[in-house]
Specification:
The structure is a homodimer. In chain A, 66% of the residues lie in helices and 7% in strands. By secondary structure, chain A is mainly alpha-helical. In chain A, the strands form two sheets. A three-stranded mixed sheet of chain A has the order 1-2-3. A three-stranded mixed sheet of chain A has the order 4-5-6. Chains A, B: Acts as a magnesium transporter.
């Protein structure tokens, strides 16, 4: 099925499934619903009314519901209501049957009381697995890993391993990489299912496996984990604790979400937005989320205005000076944002190392100066042609060169310094850097204008 | 190994490998180099001098070299030189032995002559596979798919299928999803290796497989493909031609790169940068890449200046007006960029559908108006306190409300319209929208100022 065909087909299937729910036809519903991919089931679920959802819970086992709850993509404020209409015992059963990493995500988003209720009502083994996962920070390897894994004993034969895999396959998220442990559960090797299939049945796992295994620590940042998985083209990477015990794996599908999410964070912050904006928000919700930034920027803008009012005399004498305020502050803002974008991306992908920071700052300054000179010459020529005012031309193009150079340095140094002292550099968002550069560039402009004042009059 | 341990260990291994190359010790080199992951081999390769690379080519077979060439991450301008020091026949052999999708990427980046030379020198089968892949656009499913796949015949038994997989495994990129075809090579089903392992040996593939298989077309955009793989948590998705023949698959590792790349594109364009900037560029190279944007913006800035010069009389009478130019244009720029970011992201992730465009524009306008009112009140109060000028307060806050509302509309509508007529909306990059909003917001400001002129004097 192509995408369009699938869309059409999927709409028909969705309507059919909803019809069966409304007609209370359990067999009809199960016959078509359970044929679908879990992701598609989650899509249908999200279009249902409360009443239809209640019917669905009657028709499906908690395990069947858990399978597509694993695929739900909810906004942070939607979790709280998710279980409002579900019997608490049934809800606890669903959560316990979900993939543990997803269960943890849900429990972290709901109220403490609900969380403890659900944990107390669910199967003990599930609850204790989930509790132990909840100890990890959300954005670390521990926070995104799954513990439902198959590990092989180093002393097994290939035949024994294959039998073990056949038994365990239904309960584990990833069976294509098998991690090999010694009797103390230390991670000692890796073998892919591909290698197992090609290997001789009587070989020992210890001989067939690869000993050089790349792992991550439970506390490693999820972005570092993503980088490793992407670099090595892994389908999964093992997670170990500080004693090198195998505690879980992070799979490629979780990594795709991490890459998507982290890129979105950098992007939102460059635009000066909070992360949790959604296209389904109302105008009021959107305004609420953006206001804190915008009010902060209004105050910073007023600082600029207050500063400029000191130059009232200068401006009164040469009114034309004010016509170039937007172009100077705008160009400083643009170059500053470019440098900022390079720095934020470089920090978050780990491309910028301690040693290369000075080099980067120097590079940006050089580029700011060079582009400043070229744009300065362009603007000088335009001013000569339009106003026949060489002194004005020198002031404007001179401050353009100076402020574009300074802006690149501000755009590079501020995020790097914030990162150094442990503040998330993305907080130095686009608009703040831009407004800071506004102030500096206009100071340069009026300082230069005052110097040349005599020849302007 | 944790990340730090690996880094230390890896540095030692790298130095050892280079030593062996310089000592011309082939056995020593091969013993440690071939133990490494292909990605690590590619890392070492990129640190080698030309002479060391030449020794490496002598020590490794083209196939062994191809394995880590698959992992090379090169800048567009580095491809041309890649094969400069390699014998053309050996180079052709390497390219032919690479994964076909990666081979195509390389051939697309080098000169036409080199490309045809390499294609004529390589094994005929490889050349014809690669040639057929080169017909697809780079950013489509066809451009990123691999054709080295295992497909199963619908009439096989599970036992026959497993035997077939064992034979084919060494030559195929992905063996964990098996796609099932009928005798005319139409895609008719899918079965995972997991399901095969658990299934009974005598079952027929046709009975064990899932018939509902999600596929993409060769011409589908890579971003759509990424969306499907991410939604469904696939490890691979099959690619079909217009007659539903199975022609290849796109694997999760390629999708991770797509997600990374596309997010980077949106990000760069929001900052008004070209895509191909690299942190290793020199100041001059960086300046060259950024100049086209910046010169364009200089001209747009001069339009603003030219426009403002018409208000010279107004400015001469009330000099304080110019103090608020930066805050008004700045706030319009900030809100416009936020709307632009939402629109670009929404378009590129496919979240914004035809039907929801008007809704989004209305939402943004509403949010622009609401935030404008709040920021307007804040600025009105500040002006009353600082300057005791209610009329000035009304002009500034009134134009803030108007220009923030308009800026959100410009930021939303322009990219949506560009997308509609088939222009990449990301070209409407941050700085351009910001400068356009500068002009409009200052026009509003001076229009309002002229209306209230009498009471200001």
């Amino acid at each position: 099925m192509s995408r369009d065909e699938r869309d059409i087909d999927f709409e028909a299937v969705t309507n059919e499934a909803i019809d069966f729910l409304n007609k209370e036809d359990m067999d009809g519903f199960r016959a078509i619903f359970l044929e679908l991919h879990n992701y598609e089931q989650s899509e249908i679920y999200q279009t249902l009314s409360d009443q239809e959802k209640n019917t669905l819970y009657k028709f499906l086992s908690p395990e069947e519901t858990a399978d597509f709850f694993d695929h739900l993509e909810l906004e942070p404020d939607e979790y709280e209501d998710l279980f409002d209409n579900i019997d608490a015992r049934y809800a606890a059963h669903i959560i316990g049957a979900m993939q543990y990493d997803n269960a943890v995500d849900i429990l972290n988003e709901i109220s403490r009381e609900k969380m403890t209720t659900f944990l107390s009502l669910m199967n003990k083994d599930d609850a204790s697995e989930i509790r132990s996962l909840m100890n990890y920070e959300e954005d670390t390897a521990g926070g995104i890993m799954t513990t439902e894994i198959i590990s092989l004993n180093i002393l097994m034969t290939v035949r024994e391993a294959m039998r073990h895999i056949k038994e365990m396959a239904p309960d584990s998220e990833m069976i294509y990489y098998l991690f090999v442990t010694d009797p103390e559960n230390h991670l000692v090797g890796i073998i892919s299912l591909r290698e197992l299939i090609v290997a001789d049945d009587d070989d020992y796992i210890g001989d067939a496996m690869t000993e050089r295994v790349v792992s991550v620590r439970v506390s490693d940042d999820q972005e570092e984990v993503a980088q490793i998985v992407r670099d090595y083209d892994f389908l999964a990477v093992p997670v170990v604790d500080y004693q090198d015990h195998l505690v879980g794996i992070v799979t490629a599908d979780d990594i795709m979400d991490v890459i998507h999410e982290e890129a979105g964070e950098d992007y939102s912050r460059l635009a000066g937005m909070s992360d949790n904006e959604s296209t389904s928000d109302s105008a009021l919700e959107t305004a609420k989320k953006r206001l804190p930034w915008l009010i902060g920027l209004t105050f910073m803008g007023m600082i600029t205005a207050w500063m400029l009012s000191f130059f009232e005399d200068t401006l009164a004498k040469v009114v034309l000076l004010s016509a170039f305020i937007p172009v100077i502050s705008g160009m400083a803002g643009n170059t500053g944002t470019q440098s900022l974008a390079v720095a934020i991306r470089g920090i978050s992908t780990g491309e910028i190392k301690e040693s290369s920071k000075l080099k980067l700052a120097g590079r940006e300054l050089g580029s700011g100066f060079l582009t400043g000179v070229v744009c300065g010459i362009v603007i000088f020529l335009i001013i000569i042609v339009m106003y026949q005012e060489p002194t004005l031309g020198i002031i404007v193009s001179g401050s353009l060169i100076a402020s574009m150079s300074v802006a690149t340095i501000i755009g590079t140094i501020v995020p790097l310094m914030m990162n150094k002292v442990g503040i998330d550099p993305a907080i130095a968002s686009g608009p703040f850097i831009t407004t800071a550069n506004d102030i500096i560039s206009l100071l340069i402009y009026f300082a230069l204008a005052n110097v040349f004042m005599a020849s302007l009059l």
